[in-house]
Amino acid sequence: MDNSELLNSIHRRMMNELLNHSNEKPGGQKLKEIVTIDQNLRKGIADLYVQLSELGDKEMAINILSDHVAIMVEMIVHFKSGK
Prior knowledge:
Distance between the termini: 39 Å
Number of strands: 0
Helix content: over 70%
Oligomer: single chain
Structural class: mainly alpha
Largest sheet: none
Shape: extended
Radius of gyration: 16 Å
């Protein structure tokens, strides 16, 4: 099993646990919506990567992906700061 398969397996297990427990927790429907959004985001990221790879402009690819990483880092900082 390569790293991507391992990560996908862990992600599927985590999402399945969330969905299985969503009926027991308040906000269960919200968890299902989050799982759907997460799956769509992951597909979008994979599609973006493929398109950038096919374009062959490494500088553009790095700039676009770096912008997305920066957005995610800001989100993580926001959650960690408790704001």
